[in-house]
Design goal:
With about 200 residues, this protein is an alpha/beta fold. It has six helices and six strands. The chain has a six-stranded mixed β-sheet, with helices on both faces.
Length: about 200
């Protein structure tokens, strides 16, 4: 059985990871779900067998692999004070939309059933928070993360970088930002959808 672990990093000695509420950023994908914790770690989990793509598997084995991803991502998220998920990009082209939608809703369901508050940030809001404008390349976001949140070591992985941005936006919304952000960037926090919890 193929490993689902694509990338992992932990804070290194000397990295300053601020105390405060535990927030997890979640950039969901069947092939590379990015996760980042306010405790300083990043992880990417996904199905990586390019010879047998998950969306081309027969239905029963496909469901087995999708459940493996669901369980691995849920276990990695744990019990944070807040989970921030990127909303589904409904206009996104390509295969697997049916399966991606399943994964998104199952993660949302598990977090809700566990009583974990969920923030929802759109792809454009995520990019805005990272680089100050609502459109930009994956490279621009990776560079923005390396500049503003260098303690989170993404290894240049854009999925991990996206998750760091989501996590940082959640900390900002909880009034415990990782770092001071310009007003243009913070507009993303004001536009996102947040749970009804006391901050």
């Amino acid at each position: 059985m193929i490993s689902l672990d694509i990338f992992q990093s932990q804070p290194e000695p000397g990295d300053e990871v601020p105390d405060g509420p535990r927030v997890i950023g979640v950039d969901l994908s069947l092939t590379a779900t990015g996760l980042a914790s306010s405790e300083g770690w990043c992880r990417v989990i996904g199905y990586t067998d390019k010879n047998n793509p998950i969306t081309k598997l027969p239905h029963a084995p496909r469901l087995v692999q999708m459940r493996r991803i669901l369980d691995a991502v849920t276990d990695a998220i744990g019990r944070p004070d807040l989970a921030v998920i990127e909303t589904a990009a409904l206009s996104r082209a390509g295969g697997g939309a049916h399966e991606r939608g399943w994964l998104w809703w199952r993660i949302y369901e598990r977090l809700t059933d566990a009583g974990i508050p969920i923030g929802l940030v759109s792809p454009n809001q995520r990019i805005l928070y990272a680089i100050g404008k609502g459109t930009g390349t994956k490279t621009a976001v990776v560079d923005g993360v390396a500049r503003r949140w260098p303690q989170w070591r993404t290894g240049g992985n854009d999925n991990a970088a996206d998750a760091v941005v989501l996590m940082a936006a959640g900390r900002d919304w909880l009034l415990a930002p990782i770092t001071d952000m310009p007003k243009t960037h913070r507009a993303a926090v004001e536009k996102a959808t947040w749970p009804e919890v006391t901050r």
